[in-house]
């Protein structure tokens, strides 16, 4: 029969324990709130929510992996690293042609990890145009990049005339901190409402990065006249090209709205 353990036995074990003077490391429990807790409806007509790390790659993770939305920052960074690696692996099989130099594509996707700011950052943020373009092409999405301070809206793909009505449209801040949602239930924007929303933003002093049209003076004038835009007196070709590009973009948005009404 085993002998009983006495208090003296326990005291002896304690005194001989070489770790007796050490304390248990403090364990900090990270408190995390969901992006819904921090959403704000603003006068511009959108709902602003925290985007999470990764800029345009975070947009992909938000709808491909719902865990990303409510995960801690550390887990979000881990999911982001996995997503960037996956995108770099599949890029060569999806992005074809001289438009997509693979080394530069891989480097631009790495910028989503926040390691450095590319020298050719077009949007005034850490992600250059190639990064946005590659992600949009691979994931079949379209992005509005919004700068609330400068009151500007840019697009990726850059030319909104090539956007597709049936591909998801997202809006994010140029600093990557926020996603702008048109509706509380959906983070994508309805294509049919873009035209009227752009008009409202222009009335409120916002600048939109409309495309520049190409062609002869006669062809550009025809685009502008067909859109009902008055051109008085002499006008330089570059100014006419901007007007024609704007008119063609508005016509594209109008076609989207009419097509949806007909369906």
Structure description:
With 263 residues, this protein is of the alpha/beta class. It has two domains: 39-190, no CATH class; 210-263, no CATH class. It contains nine helices and seven strands, in the order αββαααααββββαβαα. It has helices at residues 7-15, 56-64, 67-70, 73-94, 102-110, 129-139, 194-203, 217-226, 237-262; strands at residues 40-41, 47-50, 142-147, 152-156, 169-173, 178-181, 207-208. The protein has a seven-stranded mixed sheet. A hairpin with a 5-residue loop joins β1 (40-41) and β2. The chain is elongated and about 110 Å long. Mean pLDDT is 83; it is low at 27-34 and 115-124.
| N-to-C series of helices and strands | HEEHHHHHEEEEHEHH
Class computed from helices, strands and strand pairing: alpha/beta
Strand order of the largest sheet: 1-2-6-5-3-4-7
Runs with pLDDT <50, length 5+? 27-34, 115-124
Shape: elongated
Number of domains: 2
Report the average pLDDT across residues: 83
| Helical run tally | 9
Gyration radius from CA atoms, angstroms: 27 Å
* Main sheet: strands, sense, barrel: 7 strands, mixed
Strand content: 5-15%
Number of strands: 7
Helix content: 40-55%
First-to-last CA distance: 87 Å
């Amino acid at each position: 029969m085993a002998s009983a353990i006495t208090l003296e036995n326990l005291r002896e074990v304690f005194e001989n324990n070489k770790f007796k003077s050490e304390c248990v490391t403090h364990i900090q429990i990270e408190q995390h709130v969901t992006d819904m807790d921090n959403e704000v409806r603003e006068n511009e007509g959108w709902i602003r929510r925290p985007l999470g790390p990764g800029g345009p790659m975070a947009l992909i993770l938000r709808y491909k992996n719902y865990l990303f939305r409510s995960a801690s920052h550390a887990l979000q960074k881990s999911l982001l690293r996995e997503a960037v690696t996956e995108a770099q692996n599949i890029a060569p099989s999806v992005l074809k042609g001289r438009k997509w130099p693979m080394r530069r594509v891989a480097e631009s996707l790495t910028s989503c990890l926040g390691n450095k700011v590319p020298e050719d950052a077009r949007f005034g943020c850490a992600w250059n145009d190639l990064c946005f373009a590659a992600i949009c092409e691979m994931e079949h999405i379209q992005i509005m990049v919004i700068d609330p301070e400068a009151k500007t809206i840019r697009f990726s793909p850059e030319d909104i005339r090539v956007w597709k009505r049936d591909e998801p449209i997202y809006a994010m801040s140029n600093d990557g901190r926020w996603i702008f949602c048109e509706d509380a239930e959906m983070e994508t924007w309805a294509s049919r409402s873009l035209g009227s929303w752009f008009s409202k933003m222009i009335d409120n002093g916002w600048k939109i990065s409309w495309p520049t049209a190409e062609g002869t003076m006669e062809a550009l004038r025809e685009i502008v006249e067909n859109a009902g835009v008055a051109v008085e007196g002499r006008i330089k070709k570059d100014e006419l090209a901007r007007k024609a590009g704007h008119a063609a973009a508005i016509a594209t948005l109008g076609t989207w709205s009419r097509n949806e009404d007909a369906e």
